[in-house]
Design a protein that fits this description.
This protein is mostly helical. It is about 70% helix and about 0% strand.
Length: about 150
């Protein structure tokens, strides 16, 4: 469930960006934080979840996977999970760097904002997905108790 929500958030955010700008390369995405602040805030939330930053849901997913791999002696899986998080940090940092900074950065100069052209339904869906990443992280123990623990006791 967590992976589905993280992926859906990133893909919906990317599709909103593409539908507004027809941009699919990082160099085409300059100043997106000023042009599309809600979309980019949701993309940052999804990125933090994918990287595994607490309190987002991705942290707890990675924590449980790393804990299970460590306890079962699969240290190569622990290394792979940590390595994948570091790769995600590098990838998202580069993307957000391009989206936040430009050669002639004048933040706030795009007051009208491209995000206003976005479908309200798409934007509302994106916000709900991003908030659910936080909510699933904050309620991770209750989710585990309801979905996983009963099957462990069988």
């Amino acid at each position: 469930l967590n992976d589905v929500v993280m992926t859906a958030t990133l893909f919906l955010g990317a599709s909103i960006i593409y539908s507004n700008l027809q941009a699919d390369r990082p160099q085409d995405m300059k100043d997106l934080f000023t042009k599309m602040p809600v979309t980019m805030a949701c993309m940052v939330v999804a990125a933090l979840a994918v990287i595994g930053v607490p309190p987002f849901s991705g942290f707890f997913s990675k924590f449980y996977l790393i804990q299970g791999a460590f306890l079962s002696g699969h240290y190569e899986l622990v290394a792979a999970l940590i390595f994948s998080s570091l790769m995600m940090v590098a990838m998202f940092f580069r993307l957000f760097e391009k989206a936040y900074f430009s050669e002639n950065s004048h933040h706030g100069s795009h007051a009208a904002g491209v995000w206003l052209k976005t479908s309200p339904w798409a934007l509302a869906s994106l916000v709900i997905l991003a908030l659910s990443l936080l909510l699933m992280g904050l309620l991770n123990q209750q989710i585990m108790n309801y979905t996983v623990v009963p099957y462990l006791e069988m």
